[in-house]
Amino acid sequence: MATKYGRINQNAYRVLNRAMPGHFTVILKSSPMLPKLLKNRRTEVGVRIPNEPITLEIVRQYGSPIIATSIPNRPNDTPYTMGFDIHETHGHGIDLTVDVGDELSGEETTIIDLRENEIILVRQGAGHL
Q1: Per-residue pLDDT at 122 exceeds 70
Q2: Predicted pLDDT at 35
């Protein structure tokens, strides 16, 4: 599915095979399909394939990727760790909140820029290559 919305060169393909699914977000050059879908002229796309069974099942059932943004941290800069907290604060702008009942780690993903041939670490987070 990622190849439909992002351009994946041979180097990016190798990294994606090691990192996905997992705690990574990769930045790719967008494919011609993405601007049509989002109705804008974005030249890059962030792709994340989490290792979370519920999320993967939602994507499988829906048949398309989830287009989403990150939830900002709380005013004291700590991440949200419970689904109900996210829903209470941001639920007015969210189509679906899944609260698994357990506290989430709140760790950010590791962001890797794969738009060119070299691998650029943008942010170190929970993912390790």
Answers
A1: yes
A2: 57
Residues 54 and 66: their CA atoms lie apart, in Å, by 13
Whether 5 has a pLDDT exceeding 90, the answer reads no
Q: What is the CATH number of domain 2-70+108-123?
A: 3.90.870.10
Say if CB 82 and CB 103 are below 8 A apart.
Answer: yes
Ramachandran bin of 95, using left for φ above 0, alpha for ψ from -120 to 50, beta for the remaining angles: alpha
Q: Report the half-sphere exposure of 75 (CA within 13 A, side-chain side).
A: 1
Report residue 34 as tokens.
Answer: 């993405």
Q: Distance between CA atoms of 87 and 62, rounded to whole angstroms?
A: 21
The domain ranges of the chain are 2-70+108-123
